[in-house]
Every structure is written in structure tokens, then in C-alpha cells.
Specification:
Number of domains: 2
Order of helices and strands: HHHEHEHEHEHEEHHHEEHHEHEHEHEHEH
Strand order of the largest sheet: 3-2-1-4-5-6-7-8
Strand content: 15-25%
Distance between the termini: 54 Å
Number of helices: 17
CATH topology of the largest domain: Rossmann fold
Number of strands: 13
Shape: elongated
Radius of gyration: 25 Å
CATH superfamily of the largest domain: NAD(P)-binding Rossmann-like Domain
């Protein structure tokens, strides 16, 4: 058995003395390799603790660049690395945490054409991504390579964790989710929100599971861990069934998914995730829409008009146009206000990006409204861009 460097006994001493780790476990960590796909809210805490624990080689795959909005939860990035590829930014931070490990940043996108090649060198794969097509790609690749996949997810106040392809009989992602949800139903953190500490909880647990797999502390039983920050108790574990014989990826029967490089995962998942900002700027009937500049001109002209804001009450409390009225979209569509049905009414509907406002206009027109009812193209984000740069963008 190879020994550690003398200084490593002090660096890792607090975990070296743990039953189940000891010197053999630390040597295993030093000799192991883990690849983290996604250096965002989940990947950053996972990378941080893998590096601190002494995992010998850490691969980081992420083609995005650091943005200001990332810093609330992606703890390895800083204002100084805004505009830098996340893989490189995270690698620099990991190297500062532990200069004795090897960090391999990969700033290209993970694709069906390169997944096998990029992931093959590693002992454990961590799925720290936030999109469904990549989850299927990672799961299929893990099955093909015979590599355990530690998968995490987080939104709002909730998260979940699962180790797929565990041992000889552990299920893969396709076993549990043979059919993907519609893209419109898989909201991102930008759309639905996320508490940064929640991604920290799940990312840390992913690092913990990887360490358990490497050191032999994992019990080999597949389970799904559900976390809710606002529940008591916050954790719930669900025992998972074994592999489905008919699973298209890991099963022993039925049709197979085929060669990974030939699969169009985006099409399989129903197409690309909707670009809600682009949709808010385009589409709809221009007769029922108004630009930010034109709305500003109407308001400056002195015309008596109502501004109806259909965002949630929480978002309305963050910022809103002066004298606007807040009726959340779900309330408005359930019972459209009758006072907007008279011919003299002039109503301009606003939301964050210009999507919910279109639905609100349709709901109001369903009440046989006779007056002017239009929605703001691009929503309040367009207002901030084209009219008032001091208006908050979140």
C-alpha cells in the first residue's frame, strides 16, 4: 500500500481517524477520480468538499460562464471571475483549497458525441446539472461505462439525491423516469427561484455519497433522498426497486436505446427548454401588445390607464411600476375582474418577461371586455432595458 506524504497526515487527520476510512480509505481517495458535470449551485459545494477530502483527480465539465446572478449560490465563483468559464473558475478555487490534487477543467459542452470519451477516465460521475436531456445522457453513459452516477437536483426550497447504476442491480435514471416531462414543466432556477443554501445541502450530500462509494462505506442499497427545507423533518428516504428488466438502458429485456452518440436527447425530451425571455418578446397578436417605449409615451400623455401586474405578490413586493395594481395570474384566470369589461377601460398588463401577461389578456378578453387591453412586450425586463435602467432586474 502506498503511503501519504507526511503533511497529508495532518491535513486529513480528522477523517483519517474515522472507523471505515483510516489510512486505507485516504489512500483510496487519493488514488480515485471523480468528474463533476455542472459547476453551478450543486457542483460548487460538491467540488469544494471533494477537493478538501483529498480526492486525487477531479474533473469539472461546464461550458457556461460565470454571471453575477450565479454568485448567490455558486460559492466557488466570485465577482473577479464573472465572464470566465465556470469549469476554469471552479478549478482555480478547488486548487486553492487543495494544491496537492489534480483538477481537470473541461469548458466544452457534454454531448452524445463526446460523453463516453470525457467520462470514461473517472471512477464516479456527479450529475450537478439542471436540465433533463443531460440527465438522460449522463445516466445512459454511466450504464454503458458501468460507473455509479450520483445525481442531485434542487429548486425553490426543495432538493433530491439519488445514486443510480449502483452495483449490479441498482436502477438507472430511465428505470425511474422512462418518459421525460414536457419541457414547459421543467422550470429552471431563474424561473421558479432557489435558495442557495438548499443547493449547498444537496451538493454536499453528493460529495458525501462519492466519498462513501470510493471508501466502501456505501451500503449498496439504492434509495431516493427527498429534502425540503421547510418541512419537519426535512429529510425523507424512499427505497428504490431494483433494475427493470425492460429498461431501455440497463434492462436485460426489450428494446435498447441504441448507440449513445446517435441519440437526440433534446428531441427525446420534447425539444429544447423554452426561452421564456424570447417568447415574451415575440409571439402573440401585436394588436393586443405594446412596447415599453410606447407604453411610456401613453403614460406620459396623461391618458387615464390602469397598469395590471400579474406577477406573484412576492415579486410585486420586489419592484413594480407606480400606481400599478397586483392581481396574480392564477387569481385573475380563476375569476377575471368584471370591472375591466366596460368600453371606457384602458388596461395594460405587465409581468416579468411578457408571457404571463399574454395569458392574462386572453383571460380578460374572455370576459367580453370592450375597452383597450394590451400587454407589455418583454415585460418589466424590457421596461428596465428600454425605458428605466434604474428599474430592478432579478
Amino acid at each position: 500500500m502506498s503511503q501519504l506524504r507526511l503533511e497529508d497526515y495532518r491535513r486529513y487527520g480528522r477523517q483519517l481517524i474515522l472507523d471505515g476510512i483510516g489510512l486505507p480509505g485516504q489512500v483510496k481517495l487519493q488514488s480515485s477520480s471523480v468528474v463533476v458535470v455542472g459547476a453551478g449551485g450543486l457542483g460548487c459545494p460538491a467540488i469544494q468538499y471533494l477537493a478538501a477530502a483529498g480526492v486525487g483527480t477531479i474533473g469539472i465539465i461546464d461550458h457556461d460562464v460565470v454571471e453575477l446572478s450565479n454568485l448567490q449560490r455558486q460559492i466557488l465563483h466570485t465577482e473577479e471571475t464573472i465572464g470566465v468559464h465556470k469549469a476554469i473558475s471552479a478549478a482555480l478555487s478547488a486548487q486553492r483549497i487543495n494544491p496537492n490534487i489534480k483538477v481537470e477543467p473541461i469548458s466544452s459542452a457534454l454531448l452524445p458525441e463526446n460523453a463516453l470519451e470525457l467520462l470514461k477516465p473517472y471512477d464516479v460521475i456527479l450529475d450537478c446539472t439542471d436540465n433533463v436531456p443531460t440527465r438522460y445522457l449522463l445516466s445512459d453513459t454511466a450504464v454503458a461505462l458501468g460507473t455509479p452516477l450520483v445525481s442531485g437536483a434542487a429548486q425553490k426550497f426543495d432538493g433530491q439525491l439519488c445514486v443510480y447504476n449502483l452495483g449490479k442491480d441498482g436502477p438507472c435514471y430511465r428505470c425511474l423516469f422512462p418518459r421525460p416531462p414536457a419541457p414547459e414543466l421543467t422550470g429552471s432556477c431563474e424561473e421558479v427561484g432557489i435558495l442557495g443554501a438548499v443547493t449547498g445541502v444537496i451538493g454536499n450530500l453528493q460529495a458525501l455519497e462519492a466519498i462513501k462509494l470510493i471508501t466502501g462505506l456505501n451500503d449498496g442499497k439504492a434509495s431516493l433522498l427527498i429534502y425540503s427545507a421547510l418541512s419537519s423533518p426535512p429529510f425523507r428516504s424512499i427505497r428504490l426497486r431494483s433494475r427493470k428488466p425492460t429498461c431501455a438502458a440497463c434492462g436485460s429485456e426489450g428494446n435498447k436505446v441504441g448507440t449513445i452518440s446517435s441519440i437526440d436527447y433534446i428531441t427525446f425530451c420534447g425539444g429544447p427548454r423554452p426561452d421564456w425571455e424570447a417568447r415574451g418578446l415575440g409571439g402573440g397578436n401585436l394588436d393586443t401588445r405594446i412596447s415599453a417605449l410606447d407604453l411610456k409615451a401613453v403614460l406620459d400623455s396623461g391618458v387615464k390607464a390602469r397598469i395590471l401586474d400579474v406577477r406573484s405578490r412576492t415579486e410585486f413586493g420586489i419592484c413594480h411600476l407606480p400606481d400599478s395594481i397586483n392581481i396574480p395570474l392564477n387569481e385573475l384566470t380563476a375569476k377575471p375582474p368584471s370591472e375591466y369589461a366596460d368600453e371606457s377601460s384602458v388596461v395594460y398588463v405587465v409581468c416579468r418577461l411578457g408571457n404571463d401577461s399574454q395569458l392574462a389578456v386572453d383571460a380578460l378578453r374572455g370576459t367580453a371586455v370592450q375597452g383597450i387591453v394590451k400587454d407589455l412586450i418583454g415585460g418589466l425586463r424590457a421596461w428596465a432595458k428600454d425605458v428605466d435602467p434604474s428599474f430592478p432586474v432579478y
